[in-house]
Amino acid sequence: MDKKKVIKFVAIVYGIVWTLQIIGAILQDRMAGMKGIIAFRGSLVISMFIPMIVAFFLKADFKGMGWKPRLRGNIKWLILSLLLPSVCAILGWILFFIVFPDLFAMDGSYLIKVYVSVGMNAEEAMSKMNESGMDMKTLFLLSVVMCIVEVPFINMLTGIGEEVGWRGFLYPELMKNMSRVKAWLLGGIIWAAFHFPAMIFGGYEYGKNYIGAPVLGLVTFSIACIALGIMHEIIYDKTKCIWYPALFHGAINGVTTLYVMLLDGDQIEKIDKLFVFGPFSLGLISVIPFVVAAIIMGTLALKKDNER
Fold this sequence. Notes:
- By secondary structure, the protein is mainly α.
- It has 13 helices and no strands.
- The longest helix is centred in the N-terminal third of the chain and has 28 residues, at 3-30.
- The chain is globular.
């Protein structure tokens, strides 16, 4: 491992991205409604490409990252990349609502309040949906299907920016001088900290009013990133194609937002307090299926490593 190169990579990425996220959070607070959200989300989208850009200027081995799509021998990894995020997310929602059953309500009430909070005409949107003969359950099922067959391919175009930096450059560098497990742990923490200013100042992922804020959110998100990092790294290692972890990344980013259709809008204050636990897929309870999947995949990968 080129330690100086890794330190330089992380320092430059953090310097740029943390600045972008703080500016985005400030704009979100100062600008009303949707304009503020667009400004903040825009800073996050730009941030996703910074790891790739920095890796390029540090002369990472871009040619060796596997840019040519490889379907032959990788169909099972394609299916896993598309399906696993939705399966884990659904199991996570189930776990969360077993613990907090009173927060479940598939009536669109929470979704309406989210729309209203950003200045959108929620009643008109819901009215049009009902006129089309679609209810909330149908919309939810359709959204899950879209998060398997279409959304991942769209989202991977932004996810590729992070994946080139993390899985294409950082993780392989770490593994040159440390065990795979240590690289997974350190890589996951570095990946998590990439988002910390957005979480602390902008309420990214869990909001700002949850129990134990902001420390519990940072710890929870770090656990999630370690688990997700393990799965991303294994998918990349098995396929030798950078598009597969980007696809997996895109699938996760798509399905994690569907919780808005499952919550009771009349209990929004309680939801805000408990949001660090779920049903957002990277909450302390709802992330458990992802952690279990990571442990299973990691154990199998290490077993094969030992058999070589």
